[in-house]
Every structure is written in structure tokens, then in C-alpha cells.
Amino acid sequence: MAPSNQQSLRIWLLVIVAALMFLVLLQRLPSRQVDSQKGEAPIILAIGAQDLELHILPIGAVVQRLIVRDKLGAKRDVALGFDLDDLAPYQNGTSPYFGAVVGRVANRVKNAAFQLDGKTYHLTANDGNNSLHGGKKGWSMHTWSAKQLSKTSAKLTLVSPDGDEGYPGQVTASVTYTLVQGRDSTDVRMLFEAATTAPTPINMAQHCYFNLGGVHEPSDVLDHRIQINSSYYTPVDSETIPTGEVEPVKGTPFDFREEHAIGERIAQITRPGPGGYDTNMVLWGFDGPDAALHTHNCVSAIEVQQAASVHDPESGIQLDILTNSPGLQFYSGNFLDGSIAGKGGVRYPQHGAFALETQVFPNSINTPSFPQCVLRPGGKYEHKAIWRFRKKID
């Protein structure tokens, strides 16, 4: 028996409703599922009335989002990076270390080689003839084992095998991120730890790129105002390797003992390639031109102290950097050029961010007069850093 016109109409209405429901469901699905085995599933930490949110990826122990409130109470993501449906740059090394923990040795090792206990070790070169941030596949490209300890804390652990990128010894390294609420500020506290089966240099660093105005649209940080508690810096050669000298900042564009805009004297910096700051600032351990630098020995003899402060007059967001490390790499996003499409498709322009990496001095393993960090079996590596966020209303 053929269906009546009324029955046919009901069938077509059901088909149309089902199709519409399917389209709505399809729109709500992500473009693809994140894969926790590939380091794609984030851990989200939050504190207070969501005054600060930290999104961490197992791949590279990356800070993928860092959301803080501006002077008007609005939320701003202040960390450059990539969206969850575009994580390939973190995995294949085309990310310029956005938000990653770099190691085994952060920064540069000259000629990708060093001597330790009478033996020469050859590393993987990935920055001309030099090794940068651990080599071609440094720790920023590895998936760390991630464990959320609480709503405000997470620990990520990585086992780096003997011979990894040429470095000796099996190293078990970890970074613990913890959020702490203060009376008028909120901290992201980081504890970097490591142990080894054989003597090896260690220099872990967090390589977050900050724009305190937010990363929702292209903008530079040249109007951000910065102050650094440093009276000395380490000059570099044509390959951005420290020469071994330690020079006073007085009378140079590296003098940030008093607050200046990042862009105020940036044109005075002469260096190969794109201009700008990419400089190790001496925080402690050097008391004058005739004094020997203090040996770091992988565990600092001091507690964390304030190293730098940056604020954006437009957003009112201020970031203080505290650490127990002897050096601070100040980088002004020189190699950003608009070619990288980050979160939301935003293209990051030159000087679209700054980085303040707490560290042992670059190439220290080849510079005996610099603070050293050679970790030995039974020893302990411990590096502390704090990002302290507060509001500053001019």
C-alpha cells in the first residue's frame, strides 16, 4: 500500500530534522582528536577565580596557553604558540621553541663539541656549526611523561638516553609547574630537576615567548617597559657565542638597571642577521672586573631573587622574573618575521614577543671562567624560576 501524502510529509520532516542535527553535531566536533600519546592532550591548571590559567602540553613540556587578567579584568593569552589542531610545529622542530623546555643544554655550545674529564664529545650541530638548545632533536621535541598533581600543579618527566644528541649519560629530568596565589599577584613557579648516570653538562630553560598585550592580534613589544637587575653582560661573536668576556652594561644599550622601553635603544644593537637583543645578562656571581665568577655547581647557593620586570602600559599586565640561576637570556623576538601563523591564525611580526630565559651562561662548558653546571652521578641539578604576574596601572 502506498503511503499517504501526510505520511510522506512526516518522513521527509524526520529526514530533514535528522540531517540538521547531524550538521550541528559535526560543527561541534574538533577538526581532529588530540592524541595523548603524541603529547597533544593538554593539562590545564587554574587558580583563584580563573585569575591565571596555564595550559601545558606533554610534547616539550610546552606552555601552550598562559591566560592572565589585564587591568580591566579581561582575560588575555600572553604566550605565543600554536592551536591544539596545529601541533605539528611543536613536534617537527619548526616551532622557534615557543613555550618549550629546552635541554639538555639550553642556548649555544660552540662548534657543537666540548671536553669533559679528558674526553671530547661531539654534539649534533643545528645552528650552523654550533649546537643550539640541545641539538636537532632536543628535549623540546620529545614527549614528556605528564602527571597532574593537583588543580594547580603538574610534573613532567623525561628520560634522555646516553648519547642523546651526543651528550653522555642517561639523564632523568623533570619540570614541575605550580600556580600560587599571592595577595596582589599570581605566580607560575617552575622547578627543574635532573639526575644522571654519567658526568654531563645540564642547563634546562623555559623558552616562553611573551606578549603582555595578548596574542589575539599581531603586535610588537617595543613599547613594553623592562628593567633587569644586571650590571654586566656577556658580549658575543658573529655566531652569537659569548666571547668569554664579561662587560659592564653602563653606557651601553644593555643597561636596564633603570626601566626603558624595549624598543628605545634597540636600533643601537649591532649583530649578524635581524637586529635586536639576544644577550645573556649576568645576574649574580660576578662582583667586578677582577673577580672570578662563582661556580654554579648545578644547585644554587642562593634562593630565588628578582631578575627582571616587564610591563605593558596598554594592558596593565606586569611580569616579574625571579630565579636562582646566574644568567638571564633577554631575547626580543628578532627572528619573528610574520611567516609563522600561530594561535587563531595570527602572524607574529618581528619583535612580536620577548623571552627571558633563566639559565647558566651560554657555552659555559667551553668557558672555564663562567659558572659551570656539570652534573655527576649522585649529584643533583635544581633550577628554580618564577613568573609573577600582577597589574600595573600607570
Automatic annotation (TrEMBL):
Catalyzed chemical reaction(s): alpha-D-glucose = beta-D-glucose
SUPFAM superfamilies tied to this protein: Galactose mutarotase-like
Sorted UniProt keywords: Carbohydrate metabolism, Isomerase, Membrane, Transmembrane, Transmembrane helix
Transmembrane stretches, start-end: 12-29
Pathways involved: Carbohydrate metabolism; hexose metabolism
InterPro entries documented for this protein: Aldose_1-epimerase, Aldose_1/G6P_1-epimerase, Gal_mutarotase_sf_dom, Galactose_mutarotase-like, GH-type_carb-bd
Pfam families: Aldose_epim
Molecular functions (GO terms): aldose 1-epimerase activity; carbohydrate binding
Binding site for beta-D-galactose: N107, R108, H207, C208, Y209, D278
Keyword match Plastid: no
GO biological process entries: galactose catabolic process via UDP-galactose, Leloir pathway; glucose metabolic process
Keyword Cell membrane among record annotations: no
EC number: 5.1.3.3
Gene3D superfamilies assigned: 2.70.98.10
Active site: H207 (proton donor), E357 (proton acceptor)
Family: Belongs to the aldose epimerase family.
Protein name per the record: Aldose 1-epimerase
Species assigned in the record: Symbiochloris irregularis
Lineage: Eukaryota, Viridiplantae, Chlorophyta, core chlorophytes, Trebouxiophyceae
